[in-house]
Design goal:
Blueprint lengths: L22 E4 L5 H10 L4 E4 L4 H7 L10 H9 L3 E4 L10 E4 L14 H10 L8 E4 L7 H11 L17 E4 L18 E5 L2 H11 L6 E4 L2 H32 L3 H8 L23 H9 L7 H27 L8 E5 L14 H11 L3 E5 L27 H6 L2 E4 L8 H7 L3 E3 L13 E3 L1
Parallel strand pairs: 1-2, 1-4, 2-3, 4-5, 5-6, 7-8, 9-10, 9-11, 11-12, 12-13
Antiparallel strand pairs: 6-7
Helix pairs in contact: 4-5, 7-9, 7-10, 10-11
The structure holds ligand SAJ.
Length: about 450
């Protein structure tokens, strides 16, 4: 079957009786689908389970919905009978192990939102089989596996006449954080070390044996809390260090020192230093969000995570700092921000990807509109800013990408470089525009001038 063949006649949830998966993966997103393919690459038969009915159909059509996974790979594993997907949770009864990889966002009050994890666990519980292993991969606060998943999976089911179960005896449960970095061509699911922490030693052993079928290196730890916390720590480390360089950037502006030169000079130190760069703020579904899973849980222990709070304050201030800087640059050209035509270059949260969740560019577009600027954006990866995933699109015309024509460039009073996409001709832009404000150091080596301002 080729990736473009017509969908099979089988209804999307009717799995062939002969389909006996070793592992079921609940949640076929940027973590679940690569994980499914990695297990299938290792020879395992994999069942994908997702609440989105399009996923089983796309799977049967041999079509990928994740940028890093080629459709040919999906088609190969489907044709070989190693991968199918369904929306029917009862099918997990066929698998030896079940992995949960569903989103863990923040709610409107910036607090952990485990509704999808709980829903997945409650959908699994009635079909959990004796001896089966369940692993949670979603990033979450320390204690989730023990305090949320265990009671749901152990609870008796009076209606079904099933008595309570005991974790580590009747079934196994572990936590193993996902470490997927979308777009990373060096590190992938197979070669990135996997941390695993079981509710009991037997649970850990089962989880290690499961991942050994797909991942090169496994690092067992003594408890799920250890694994849950280490994942948060990995990303808090990034968040806090990015905040540090963002604070340095604001100080350097006052001291009239080039922060990029300072950081590049520091990076000549071959040991004891790790390079982070300032920018317009933190985007993505991990770095801006994960730290608040820990600070929320820490309050239960009367503990205030000062570094996380301070880093959050500094990083969330960066969009305001950027607007202040472009206002200052226009002022130096005797132009007010109100009524100025501002062209924002890049809305994705980092270079060469299309994802703009939590992207500071969205906040900056909103602030510019509130300040009365006539703002538009261009991003080759983001033709339109759509709602959903916590994103509120800016008002038109700042909600759709404009073409990067010379007319557009000439019309701009200021250009703001917010995402350093590779495919943009930065030199041409600098030459064509009266004022460019660079927040990503795309003009490294070109000194600041009255037409080139920098973070
Ligand atoms: N950012 C900076 N300065 C930096 C690095 C990043 O401002 O020095 C900004 C980016 O522009 C972006 C945000 O921070 O807006 C997050 O960038 P990121 O490079 O951390 O990329 P993410 O969000 O895709 O983070 C993922 C994480 N992967 C997982 O959680 C499994 C993170 O742990 C990885 O370290 C990161 O990818 C990576 O290294 O690429």
């Amino acid at each position: 079957m080729t990736a473009t063949s017509a969908p099979h006649q089988i209804p999307d949830d009717a799995l062939p009786e002969t389909f006996r998966p070793e592992v079921a993966i609940v949640g076929l997103g940027y973590v679940g689908l690569p994980l499914a393919m990695t297990f299938a690459d290792g020879g395992a038969t994999v069942l994908g389970v997702d609440v989105d009915p399009s996923k089983p159909v796309l799977t049967r059509n041999g079509t990928s919905w994740i940028e890093d996974i080629p459709s040919e790979l999906v088609a190969t594993h489907v044709d070989a009978g190693r991968f199918l997907a369904t929306t029917d949770f009862s099918a997990i009864a066929r698998a030896d192990a079940v992995i949960i990889a569903v989103p863990t966002p923040l709610n409107r009050n910036r607090e952990p939102d485990l509704t999808m994890v709980e829903a997945a666990t409650r959908s699994i519980a009635p079909h959990l089989q004796p001896g089966q292993l369940v692993v949670l991969e979603s990033t979450t606060w320390p204690g989730t596996t023990r305090e949320i998943l265990t009671p749901i999976l152990e609870a008796a089911d009076e209606e079904a006449g099933r008595p309570a179960r005991v974790v580590g005896v009747d079934f196994h449960l572990a936590y193993s954080p996902e470490r997927v970095d979308p777009g990373n061509t060096t590190w992938n699911t197979k070669n990135t070390p996997k941390v695993v922490g079981g509710m009991t030693p037997a649970c850990t052993e089962k989880a290690v044996a499961l991942y050994a079928r797909a991942v090169d290196t496994i690092h067992p730890v003594s408890a799920p809390e250890t694994a849950e916390l280490e994942k948060l720590f990995e990303n808090i480390f990034r968040n806090v260090n990015i905040a540090l360089v963002n604070e340095l950037a604001m100080l350097c502006e006052r001291m009239d020192i080039d922060v990029w030169e300072v950081i590049n000079a520091a990076a000549t130190k071959p040991f004891g230093y790790m390079k982070f760069l300032p920018g317009p703020g933190l985007g993505g579904h991990c770095i801006p969000i994960d730290p608040f899973y820990l600070s929320w849980k820490a309050r239960e222990y009367d503990f205030s995570t000062e570094f996380i709070e301070l880093a959050g304050k500094i990083n969330s201030n960066m969009p305001y700092h950027c607007v202040r800087l472009v206002r200052q640059a226009l002022d130096a050209h005797s132009k007010a921000l109100r009524g100025a035509r501002v062209l924002v270059l890049g809305v994705a949260y980092k270079k060469d990807i299309a994802d703009y969740r939590e992207s500071s560019a969205i906040k900056i577009l909103e602030l510019l509109q509130k300040a009365g600027a006539d703002v538009v954006y261009h991003d080759p990866f983001v033709p339109e800013i759509e709602g959903g995933h916590g994103v509120t699109p800016p008002a038109a015309p700042a909600n759709v990408s404009v073409d990067l024509t010379d007319a557009e460039l000439a019309r701009a009073d200021a250009v703001m470089v917010l995402t350093d996409h590779s495919g943009i001709d930065w030199a041409h832009i600098l030459a064509a525009c009266p004022l460019t404000v660079d927040f990503r150091n795309v003009y490294a080596g070109t000194p600041k001038s009255d037409t080139l301002w920098k973070l």
